[in-house]
Amino acid sequence: MDKIEFKRHRRLRASASMRSMVRETHLRPEDFIYPLFIVEGDNKKNEVTSMPGVYHISLDKLQQEVQEIVSLGIKSVILFGVPEEKDDCGSGAYHDHGIVQEATRVIKKHQPDLLVVADTCLCEYTDHGHCGLVENGNVQNDPSLELLVKTAVSQAEAGADIIAPSNMMDGFVAHIRKGLDEAGFTDLPIMSYAVKYSSAFYGPFRDAANSAPQFGDRKTYQMDPANRMEALREAESDMEEGADFLIVKPALSYLDIIRDVKNNFNAPIVAYNVSGEYSMVKAASANGWIDEKAIVLEKLTSIKRAGADLIITYFAKDAAKWLKESN
To answer: Which end of the chain has a smaller Cβ tally under 10 Å, C or N?
Structure first.
């Protein structure tokens, strides 16, 4: 009988050392951006009910938190402010002593090498919960841009290393780039939420940030989850307007979009592993239905394999600890 020729792919899977040698995708703590929810007041570190392991942290508790983050090898955080008072124009977002601005100063005082990404939006600061000014029930695009520029410049003056506008107003990158340049921050990069879908996976975040819309929804400015080519149009506009990073949000249901954006644009791609994706895993783990460590590391690997260079994830601290144990 003639010998049957076939490929022996299992040769490269024969041992843990062999599998490690040929592994194509690697996770590192420096790949992660850890979100922080900063609140006003003192002596506060209160767990978010819908996001086990995620906390509202007051400024006096922030030094200890960032010390732990740095010790785990995580190089960057993204800041979300949760103010006590809100108004119709989100003035707390661009106040010189706003909660994100003050948190940035604290971090830079104690951990100057930790990169601070400032989320640049109005929804946490408006009493209506929308990401811009509202008139007759409609979110106004162009008037909102002026306030977003003021917010970005204020965050830059406080010491932010990266401005991350998440509002999805048309032209937001161009206006913020111009505003930063005119204020002397020509070297400050913009990490644009270029591809942000109107997703059902944001629920726990809105609980954490107290930012749910008080009427309607955000479908007039966030993207339809059914659309693919729209993502490329949005990303192309932001690149032309001066974006330095491109964010795709959410991550897991949009791995195809991450790959599309990676294939089409020569910029670092950031995937946002969002709150709903986090909380579902935490709930299943609490019920003993899954191996949380294995699931999380597989998920994060899939996001990197899809093309993400960086991952914003609430699992950052846990994943960094697990990777350290594995090594």
So the answer is: N
| Annotated binding-site residue? 105 | no
Please say if 249 is a catalytic residue: yes
Distance between CA atoms of residues 157 and 172, nearest Å: 19
Residue 3 domain-assigned (yes or no): no
* 8 marked as part of a ligand binding site: no
- pTM for this model (two decimals): 0.93
Residue 14 counted as domain residue: no
State yes or no: 275 annotated in a binding site: yes
Q: Give the E-state strand segments of the chain in sequence order.
A: 32-39, 45-47, 55-58, 76-82, 115-120, 133-135, 138-140, 162-165, 191-196, 245-249, 269-273, 310-313
89 is in an annotated binding site: no
Catalytic-role residue among 86, 196, 282, 317? 196
CATH number of the domain within which 167 lies? 3.20.20.70
Q: What is the pLDDT of residues 119-162, one digit of tens each?
A: 998 888 887 777 777 788 787 888 889 999 999 999 999 999 99
In the residue annotation, 196 being an active-site residue is answered as: yes
- Give me the number of domains the chain comprises: 1
User: Catalytic residue among 86, 249, 299, 317, which?
Assistant: 249
pLDDT in tens, 258-270: 999 999 999 999 9
